[in-house]
Amino acid sequence: MKWRNAGLGTLAMAIFAGAVSAQPVVQSKGNYIDKFRQLDESLPTANIYRNAAGQPGHAYWQQQVDYDIQVTLDESRRRLSGSETIRYENNSPDTLSYLWLQLDQNIFRPDSRASMSSDFSRSGGRSLPVESGARSEPARMSLSELRRMQFIEDTPMGYDLESVTDVAGNELSYTVVGTLLRLDLPAPLRSGEEVEFQIDFSFNIPEEDAVSARSGYEHFPEDEREGGNDIFVIAQWFPRLAAYTDYEGWTNKEFLGSGEFTLEFGDYDVEITVPDDHIVSATGVLQNPAEVLTATQQQRLESARDDERPVYIVTPEEALENEREGSSDTKTWRFEADNVRDFAWASSRKFIWDAKGFEQDSEEVPFVMAMSFFPKEGDPLWSDYSTEVVIHTMEVYNRFAFDYPYPVAQSVNGPVGGMEYPMITFNGPRTTLQDDGSRTYSLSEKQFLIGVVIHEIGHIYFPMTVNTDERQWTWMDEGLNSFLDAVAGLEWDPDIPWGNEPRNIVPYMVSTDQQPIMTQSDSVTRLGPNAYSKPATALRILRETVMGRELFDFAFREFAQRWKFKRPTPADFFRTMEDASGIDLDWFWRGWFYTTDHVDIALEQVYEMRLDTHDPDIDLNRQREAEANKPASTSALRNREEGMRPWVERNPDVRDFYDENDIYTVTNKERNEYQSFLDSLEPWEKATLERALEEDRHYYVLSFSNQGGLVMPLPLQLTYEDGSTERVDIPAEIWRRNAHQVSKLIVSDKALEEVVLDPEWEIADADIHNNYYPRRIIPSRVEAYKSSQSSRLVDRDIMQDIKTELNSDDEEE
C-alpha cells in the first residue's frame, strides 16, 4: 500500500465532518475468528477416486449388483415369501472376503438395536427430566405407542431366512447382525470378479399405521367385501447388498430408523404374484401386460401416451367393483428395471389407475409414462392433481439437474405419508367422506398432495439417481430435494403458501436444540428443520442472494450431471459448486453446515459526512449552521418563557466586537492560507478536489455488527428524501477481516432518509427490528383475555360435576 504524507492525501484524512471510529481487525488470541479460512482442513483429501474439483476421479469405481426375484403376496396372512438370485460384481480395486447385506425388516424385531435403544420420551411417550428443585411429571404413554407395542408382540416380525446358497445349492456361511447380514464367501472375490448366490426369505408385513414404517399394509374394514380390503406398499423388503465405497468401505451402519440407506446400482427382473384382482405398481416397466391387463386396459394405456389429460386405465367404477368382489386366484406381474439402486412396489384391488405420457428432449429416455394409483378415498383430489404434478416435477427438475432417467414415474396413495424409490413413490393425502356421499378436501390437503408428490418424485433424481448416502448425510438428499421442490412448488402456484421462506427457519436457527447440518442422520433430534428446511433455506439464499441464479443454476446442474448414477459425498458437492461458479464459498459451507450460528446482523449507526473543503467561507459557515441546529439550552428557554431578559439585552452598551462576530467569522488570514493550500496541490489533486466540490455529494458510513455469528451478504434498501429507493448488495467478503463489526461507505447524489438491511427477509435474519435506521416502532397489540382454568384435579368442582347426567349412549353401553 502506498501512502501520501501531504497534499490531497492529507486532505482525504480530514474528509469527515461527523466522528466515525475506525473498526480494527480483531486479532487477539482469545476472540480472533476467521470465518473465511479454507474448508479443506475439514474435507477429505482429494484423490484418484474423487478429485479436488468435486468430480469423479479418473479411477472412480462403484459396484454392480443385479437381482432376479420371485415374490408372492399372501393376502390373508399378510405375508411375503420370496426367492432371489443376486449377482455381485466387484469393480473395486480391493479383494473382498465377505459381503454385507441389509435386512431392514429386522428393525421391527423387539430385540433389534433400534428397539432396544429407543428413547421412550421420543417414541410416543412422555417422561420429562427432573431438574434440581423441580417437581417431576409422571411418565405417560400414547395410544399410538401402545398400539405399536401390541402389534409387535402379537406378530413375529423380521426375516425368516429359509436358505442362503450358491447357485449350485451349496449352503453359504452367514451371520446376522441386527439389520445386517455378513455373507462369508467360500473364496476371496478379487477385483474384476463376480459371485452369484441365492436367498429364500419370508416375513410378516407390518401394519403401517401401527408401527409407522416406510412400508406395510393398510386395512379398510369398512369396505363391502367380507373382511375388508388392504393396500400393500412394499419397500425395503428383500435382502439387498449394502454399498461398498471408496470413502468408507462397507456402509454397514445398522438401520436405526432415521438414516435411510445407500445402495448399489443394478438391473432387476422381478416377478410379483398377487391375488388375481389386484393392480400392481412397481419399479420398472411391465413386461407382460397381456397376461395381467384386459384388452381394454391395454388400449387405455396406449391412448394415455398422447392424451392432453390423464386417462383412466382402471376407472373409479371398476375399482369399486373390484374391492367388492375379491378373488382366490392369483396373477403374476413381471417388471424389469435397468440401472436402479432399489425396487419397491404396491398392490391392491382398491386401486384406481390413471396415466399420461410425458415427452422430454432426451435421446436416452425420450418418453416417460406418468401414472398414479389410488383408492376411492383419494378422489377427486388424486385424479385432479397427482399425475399432472408428476409431470410438472419432471419439467422443473429436468432444467436443474438432468432429463428424467427412467421410462416410468409413479405416485401411489397408501398408508405411507411420503417415501421414494426408483420410478415409484408413496404419498399419503386423502379426502373426507361427507354425509351426502361426496368427498371433499381442505386447502391444506391439496397443498400436501401437490407438495409431497413434487418432493417424492424429486427424490427419484436425488438420491435415487444422484446416489447420496442417506444413512450418513440425510441433508444431501432431503436438503437438496427440499430446495428444488420449493422451486417447483412456486412454479406450480405461487399463491399457495408453501412455507419455504428463509424467515421460517429462524425459530430453529435460534433454538437451543439446533444441531449442525453435518450431524449424522440418526443423531439428529429434529430431522425436519435440520435435514430438510435448513439446508434448503441455505441453498435458496445461496441462489438468490449470494451467487445469483445464473451462477448457482449452472453449478448445481454441473453437480447433478457429474454425479448422475454415481455416489457423491458432501465434499464433492461443496467443491463442485465452487469449481463451477468461480466463487469461494468455504465461509458459507462452514457457517451454515458445520456450526449452529444463526443470522442476526444489526445496522447500528449511519453517519452522514460532508467534504471538508478547506475553504474557510464554506467550512466555517457549515459549522455555524450545524451549531445553530443544536437544541437550545433548556434553562435559557425556560428563562425566556418566564419573561427574564438577559443582562446584555437590558444593557446594550456593554456589547463589544464579539457580540457582532461569532467564532465562525472568516478573516483574510484564513483565506490566504486556503489559497496557499490550493497553490501547493499538484494538477491532478486540484482537479480531484474541484470535481468533489462541484458535485457536493453525500457521504454516509453504515456501521454493522454481527450478533448471530453467521457472516452473510448485506442486502440494503436505501430510501432518499425525494422518495426514490435503491437496492445495494454488499458481498459477504466485507466480513473477511473482522467477523464482528464492519462499516461501509455509501456515496450518493441525494440525501438519505432511511436504510433497511435485508428488506425482503431473504437472509434468515433472526431480528429484523435492528435492521432499520432510523429505528422503527415495533408493531404489537394489546390482547384481552381471561386466564385459562386450572386442569389440576384438586381444582375440579366435584360437588357440581357429580350432578351431570350420563349421556344416553353411555347408558346403553
UniProtKB/TrEMBL annotation:
SUPFAM superfamilies reported in the protein's UniProt record: Metalloproteases ('zincins'), catalytic domain (SSF55486)
Region spans: Disordered: 113-139, 622-642
UniProt keyword terms in alphabetical order: Aminopeptidase, Hydrolase, Protease, Signal
Residues of the signal peptide: 1-22
Low complexity bias: start-end ranges: 113-127
GO cellular component: cytoplasm; extracellular space; membrane
Pfam families reported in the protein's UniProt record: Peptidase_M1
Native source organism of the sequence: Pseudohongiella nitratireducens
Signal is among the record's keywords: yes
Coiled coil stretches, renumbered: none
Protein's GO biological process: peptide catabolic process
GO molecular function: metalloaminopeptidase activity; peptide binding; zinc ion binding
PANTHER family found in the cross-reference section: PROTEASE M1 ZINC METALLOPROTEASE, PUROMYCIN-SENSITIVE AMINOPEPTIDASE-RELATED
Keyword Protease: yes
Protein name: Aminopeptidase
Domain Peptidase M1 membrane alanine aminopeptidase: 385-592
